[in-house]
Amino acid sequence: MPENNNSNTEEIRFAYWVPNVSGGLVVSNIEQRTDWGIDYNRRLAQAAEKNGFDYALSQIRFTAGYGAEYQHESVSFSHAILAATEKLKVIAAILPGPWKPALAAKQLATIDQLTNGRVAVNIVSGWFKGEFDAIGEAWPEHDERYVRSEEFIRSLKGIWSQDHFNFDGKYYQFKDYTLKPKPLQQPHIEVFQGGSSRAARDMASRVSDWYLTNGNNLEGIKEQVIDIREKAKANNHQVKIGVNAFVIVRDTEEEAQAVLQEIIDHANPEAVNAFGDATRQAGAASPEGEGNWAKSTFEDLVQYNDGFKTNLIGTPQQVAERIVALKQVGVDLILAGFLHFIEEVEYFGEKVVPLVRELETQKTIELRAG
Ligand SMILES: Cc1cc2nc3c(=O)[nH]c(=O)nc-3n(C[C@H](O)[C@H](O)[C@H](O)COP(=O)(O)O)c2cc1C
């Protein structure tokens, strides 16, 4: 059994990727009964909150990439989903550069007020230089993008939790600024971040509430958890950890593996290779070469956040056991993508979540028994 790095005994949480960009979550021409429009997304969100999902994560893209030809904007789309649900928390992705913290803080505070405190934010640092060039945004190099993101997060938290907020950063400055009304969530709206590099982990261990990382095997995840938890402890900061996974659960393992094979067989090679080239500006370009996609193969890149690597592919029992193994190494949340979202979210809620809860209870009893 892997050692338990999870300091809390809380239930592992589930989030799903909001398909607010076209093409689904895989760069493949396989048939997908997933739609990027709002009607489908409202029904999906309603199904998710009834099936054990606490969070939904939206995506921000300004231009097409890896087959995502159309992309709805993340904050307004998140608000529309919140308006159609009752308890789901929706995480709006925000990219420093196009967004400024003053605007983001105000926009999100209002959404928080309108939705009974259910909005969250994912600060992404940017991986696609072509996109920044296309919209006339400067492209700071890898670690500098994290310097900016960290200032962005410190600004958000300061604005949301203090009156007369002052901040004198390299990228952002605030003088005696008081936001009213503040968000309903106190002390502030939850802040997530995405990325795997050393710079990403360092930022998480200082300022983020949640660290979201690409899919990976158990060992790869465990290394990140240990690194972040050690650094966070030294900084007297608490951060939770979420891992991406492309989930394929079927009644038999053979069926699940066959779906994976079909996705890969129908991969769109041009789009996958173009994406692979673009990612070299991102994780692989970090000084240590440890970021997202640093070691991704062609097949990994067919799911654009390495979601196959987490291996939540199999029967309900196999997948539930692997989820609990991830919890045992310190993971707090599974960020799930699916091929046919609504129907698979329902199947997951019906077949996998109850097994996870049973296994978690068993593990807690074992732990208490020593
Ligand atoms: C779960 C997750 C979600 C992300 N969502 C977005 C997004 O919506 N838009 C975007 O431009 N980048 C997104 N990113 C990319 C990251 O912000 C970051 O640029 C990328 O992971 C490379 O970071 P690294 O070099 O620190 O690993 C996401 C990353 C992760 C792990």
Looking at CATH, which topology would you report? Answer: TIM Barrel
Write the CATH homologous superfamily: Luciferase-like domain
**Could you name the CATH class?**
Alpha Beta
Q: Quote the beta fraction.
A: 5-15%
Helix/strand-derived category reads alpha/beta
The first-to-last residue Cα distance is 14 Å
Low-confidence stretches: 1-7
Helix fraction by DSSP (H/I, runs of at least 4): 40-55%
**Count of the domains:** 1
Largest sheet: 8 strands, parallel, barrel
- Secondary-structure element order, N to C: EHEHEHEHHEEEHEHEEHHHEHEH
What spatial order of strands do you see in the largest sheet? 1-2-3-4-7-8-9-12
How many DSSP E strands?
12
**Average pLDDT over all residues:** 94
Principal-axis shape: globular
Domain Luciferase-like: 14-332
Protein name: Dimethyl sulfone monooxygenase SfnG
Keywords: Flavoprotein, FMN, Monooxygenase, Oxidoreductase
GO molecular function: alkanesulfonate monooxygenase activity
Description:
The chain has helices spanning 38-50, 74-83, 101-114, 129-134, 142-161, 198-204, 218-234, 253-265, 269-279, 298-301, 316-328, 341-369; strands at residues 13-17, 55-57, 89-94, 119-123, 165-168, 173-177, 191-194, 210-213, 240-246, 248-249, 313-314, 333-337. With 370 residues, the chain is an alpha/beta fold. The protein has one domain (13-369): Luciferase-like domain (TIM Barrel). The chain has 12 helices and 12 strands. It is globular, with a radius of gyration of 20 Å. An 8-stranded parallel beta barrel has the order 1-2-3-4-7-8-9-12, surrounded by 5 helices. A two-stranded antiparallel sheet has the order 5-6. Strands 10-11 form a two-stranded parallel sheet. It holds the Pfam family Bac_luciferase. It comes from Acinetobacter rudis CIP 110305. Residues 14-332 form the Luciferase-like domain. This is Dimethyl sulfone monooxygenase SfnG.
